[in-house]
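Example 3.2
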Amino acid sequence: MDFVTDLVKGIIALFIIVDPLGNIPIFIGLTQNVPDAQKKKVFNTAVLVGVILLLVFAFTGQEILSIFGLSIYSFEVAGGILLLIIAIRILISGTRETTDSSPESLGAVPIAIPLLVGPGAITTTIFNLQVYGTETAILAVLIVLSLTWIILRFINGIYKFLGKTGSLVIARVMALLIAAIAVQYILTGITHFAALDHLVFLFRTFG
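Structure, written as tokens:
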């Protein structure tokens, strides 16, 4: 019974952070020019990459960060800069397409990371592993990303409802939202860095 309770807690926490329902308009904006046949590849790639990344970070995330002298806040700043570049490209040209606009590329970046697997999702997965155990953390990742995949599979219905013009409007509006999220990522990361530096200064001064 405790295992089920812990699993439910882990699933709820991770689902809220990943927020596939709240990100649906953003996914629509990012894939507005992708043919229907290619959208499946985009979302399949996004979910697969998301699962792999979360599991890798769950088991080796702290070690990887320690090796390179990084913190989770570095990902907030880096992810924020990446999203801001994408948002600016959409606002200026109406699309995020580049010379490498394959479904796999779009599914991996930015949908898988940093939208699905951002600093919050990584931190939550590491937390689930440490608090609830390995089995619970793995199951939470698999269940949440499976639910995400199911949600993404029904996104074409929303496209058809909105139409071409509606999707274009959504894309521009969501680009502004992506930009705001990006700025928030950057500011949060910088704030955490500043707070850490302040604590280190106080410790060295009064410790």
